[in-house]
Specification:
7-stranded mixed β-sheet; mainly beta; 4-stranded antiparallel β-sheet; 0% helix; globular
Length: 129
Amino acid sequence: QLQASGGGLVQAGGSLRLSCTISGRALSSYAMGWFRQAPGKGREFVAGISYAGRTIDYTDSVKGRFTISRDDAKNTLYLQMNSLRPEDTAVYYCAATHSIWGMAGTAPTPPPSDQYVHWGQGTQVTVSS
């Protein structure tokens, strides 16, 4: 249901844009997130975007370099990654959650990974030094 694409090999300082397309459902029905998993490490939250893009959150290491966005009309989630570093090398996953966050009266930050109900297959990002 979630198809991630856009990964590849890039030199340090370069850019990539990841896309995640949802099928069979409407993207607008979910809050979305990007996660990554480097070799030998656990899955790490990268960026989250609430329903309708009202609120966005990033892990500290990507703030100012990565931008998450969504186009509900195209059923597509994006992650623009600039100024890439070798430590950004990982498999990147998009994920969907029904959790309501980032709105008045709700949690200000995205939920943990176990509250995401749909996951993409992952796309490899490799940054060479």
